[in-house]
Amino acid sequence: MELEKLPIVEFEAPVLEIITETPTTKTLVFNLDSVEFNFCPGQYVMLQVPYQGEVLKRAYSIANSPTKKGVLELTIKRTPNGRASVVLTEQVKVGDTFRIKGPYGKFVWLPEISKSIVLIGAGSGIVPLMCMLRYIRDKKLSDVNAILLYSNTHYEEIIYRQELEEMNGSNIKVVHTLTRSFPEGWKGYTGRINEEMIKREVGDLMNNLYYLCGPPSFVDNMNSILESLGVERERIKKEKYE
């Protein structure tokens, strides 16, 4: 089905709040009080980041639900050799203003697309998936069934950890795995998301729409696993984070 195209707008917005999510990840909350900005869960914006006399343009998925008006939340993980991500996670102050343009992207979920979704993410690949989950929660879409399989290296790096725990309930199921280290008494999975984990946690594999987001190798690997399990290609949507 074709989604209506929302108008792309360009605007300037100040940082209202900075939330520390993990040791390497922050959420920047922009004030959009004076901007008419609409988007679908899963879309992204282009952010202009001033850096040593040049302007870097970076794509960031929107973290907040479209139901949350007057703000735009972007969750940004510092990457080892990143330039923009270092500025955004270490140097930005409340009140700093940025130029933003969007929304973009076809990695979109709305209830009319599918009532049964499986979200598979790694690291900051959670961001567009979290937007979808927040939308389900905020709109009280009890007829939608969502399963999140979320992979991180370490417990401390689980973005939105507390909120995901609170979401884990009747029609949203949250499953964690840690690949490098895990705290004592860890009850979740360890190691990478694999065929066994998907079969066990998803159950009926064929009737869902799948949304994969994370580093390119992760997305390709998950896609291969799903296809090997017999999931049709048209039921798999992908977003890769470089």
Describe this entry's structure for a reader.
There is one protein chain. This protein is an alpha/beta fold and 242 residues long. 20% of the residues lie in helices and 36% in strands. It has helices at residues 84-91, 126-138, 161-167, 195-202, 216-228; strands at 9-22, 25-31, 44-51, 54-61, 71-77, 97-104, 116-122, 145-152, 172-178, 189-190, 209-214, 236-240. A hairpin with a 2-residue loop joins strand 1 and strand 2 (25-31).
Number of strands: 12
In this structure, how is the largest beta sheet organized? 6 strands, antiparallel
Query: What would you say the CATH architecture of the largest domain is?
Result: 3-Layer(aba) Sandwich
User: Structural class, from secondary structure content?
Assistant: alpha/beta
State the domain count: 2
- Total helix count? 5
Q: Looking at this structure, what is the CATH superfamily of the largest domain? A: Nucleotide-binding domain of ferredoxin-NADP reductase (FNR) module
Please state the oligomeric state of the protein chains shown.
single chain
The level 1 CATH classification of the largest domain is Alpha Beta
Strand arrangement in the largest pleated sheet? 4-3-6-1-2-5
The CATH topology label of the largest domain is: Rossmann fold
Q: What percent of residues adopt helix (DSSP H or I)?
A: 10-25%
Order of helices and strands: EEEEEHEEHEHEEHEHE
The Cα radius of gyration reads: 18 Å
Q: Regions with pLDDT < 50 over 5+ consecutive residues?
A: none
